[in-house]
Amino acid sequence: MKKINSSENIRYPGPESKKIISVIRELEGSGTRTFVTDPPPMVLKSAKGARLQDPDGNEYLDLFGGYAVANVGHGHPKVIEAICAQARELIHCTSAFCNPVRANLMQKIAEIAPKGLNRILLGVTGTQANEVAFNLSTTRSNKKEIIAFHGGYFGRSNAMVAISGTARIRARLGIEPRAHFVPYPYCYRCSFGGCDNPDECKVIDYIEEMLSSPASGVGNVAAIFAEPILGSGGVVVPPDGFLRKLSQACKEHDVLLVLDEIQVGFGRTGRMWASEHDEIVPDLMTIGKGIGGGLPVSAVLGREELMNFWEPDIHTTTFLTNPLIHSAAIAAIEVMQEEQIWKNSAELGKLLLNTLISELDGHALVGEIRGKGLYVGIEMVKDKKKKTPAKEQVKKVQSQAKEMGLVLGLAGYYGNVIRICPPLTITRLELETALEKLIYIFKHM
Ligand code: PLP
């Protein structure tokens, strides 16, 4: 693809993109994100590395990574090669049978898994991996209750909606809550009035009280489900040491800690796993998104005693494991290992965060800029004192960015956070070009 010209102004959607959107909208049942009109959905024709192309020939730099999936870059040649070779050999092998690709993927995941998490259950989507973690934690003993966090997102199945923080979706789907919800350590919007020292974060005290007070309304808790960094909740980075304290609290109360590394794992935050920053290993960990190299692969990882108590045939689906998608995951993991991509994430992540802070921290619409590695959020507010979410302005930034050939995602409790999660293979030059455009947009608002 040719170099992106920073002065180009894209009129999106172009005629070809419009046609495709309209065909899909005419045939697809409603409820999918393709029906959102502001902004209209992106239409992609091709993607390579950190560059995207729409059917009208427009090119974009990708700061979104297809919902934080393109960790090893779009269309990595080794992933393509692996898929093509596997397609010629064996595409489908029911999960009731075995095949060498499945065995190989298990070994590959075991190589990058946190120490001690040496049992694996494969899946297809992140939601599915979380479902399995939910079922494992609620069936191993008579403990059935779950604690989850405000702003948490674990997927869109029944049980995952029931423990995610978005009541709007639950209400629309008629799903009852299935968790005790606690505030996430969201320092910018602290639920406990703030503190001077992150070491004094009150969230842990609150959880301790929930778990120990006979009056808290909380019974036998099986597990606490947490994201190491809130993703859809707005790229909320907890204070250093929070996960360690959470892990300690779980151990003291014999509660499982289930960490969802689906979005922030696999190199995203500058380490292989986000939980490494706090040097902890959860009881169960779910992974997905980037590990498939663009194809849908997920897994639950856990210690033997937490993963080996189900009798055969309790858990299956036809496509639970599939050689074609697994060949892509093996290649993606090898690429991650060989190219040590998390290092690029750490290094360019610093450049990204520091540049945004130095250029935009005092901006009238910027409440907070935060992140780790190539996972950064810009929370936009209309009023810095009241922290009123700048919902219209955030969309304006997003659509203007698209016109300038830059794809951005949004997140946050109020949808007012720009989420930056490019392919981790993005080059310094590409990132600098993207930053130039983004900063230009803010400075001309
Ligand atoms: N967990 C987290 C943290 C996520 O961000 C997502 C998806 O965005 C999921 C789980 C669900 O994964 P999937 O959409 O692959 O089912």
Description of the structure:
The protein has 14 helices and 16 strands. By secondary structure, the protein is an alpha/beta fold. It has 2 domains: 15-75 and 341-443, Aspartate Aminotransferase, domain 1 (Alpha-Beta Complex), CATH 3.90.1150; 77-339, Aspartate Aminotransferase, domain 2 (3-Layer(aba) Sandwich), CATH 3.40.640. The strands form 3 sheets. The protein has a 7-stranded mixed beta sheet with strand order 4-10-9-8-7-5-6, sandwiched between helices. Strands 11, 12, 13, 15 and 16 form a 5-stranded antiparallel beta sheet that branches. Helix 3 (77-89) packs antiparallel against helix 11 (323-339), helix 4 (100-112) packs parallel to helix 11 (323-339) and helix 12 runs parallel beside helix 14. The longest helix has 20 residues, at 341-360. It is globular, with a radius of gyration of 22 Å. The model has no long low-confidence stretch (mean pLDDT 96). Pyridoxal-5'-phosphate binds next to helix 5.
Furnish the topology, listing elements before pairings.
Blueprint (H helix, E strand, L loop, with lengths): L14 H13 L18 E3 L2 E3 L5 E4 L2 H4 L8 H13 L10 H13 L6 E5 L2 H14 L5 E5 L8 H6 L3 H7 L6 E3 L19 H11 L8 E6 L15 H11 L3 E5 L23 E4 L10 E5 L1 H4 L15 H17 L1 H20 L5 E6 L4 E8 L4 E2 L1 H13 L2 E2 L1 E3 L5 E4 L7 H16 L2
Parallel strand pairs: 3-14, 5-6, 5-7, 7-8, 8-9
Antiparallel strand pairs: 1-2, 2-3, 4-10, 9-10, 11-12, 12-13, 12-16, 15-16
Helix pairs in contact: 3-11, 4-11, 12-14
The structure holds pyridoxal-5'-phosphate (PLP).
Key words describing this protein structure:
14 helices; globular; 445 residues; Aspartate Aminotransferase, domain 2; 16 strands; Aspartate Aminotransferase, domain 1; single chain; binds pyridoxal-5'-phosphate; 36% helix
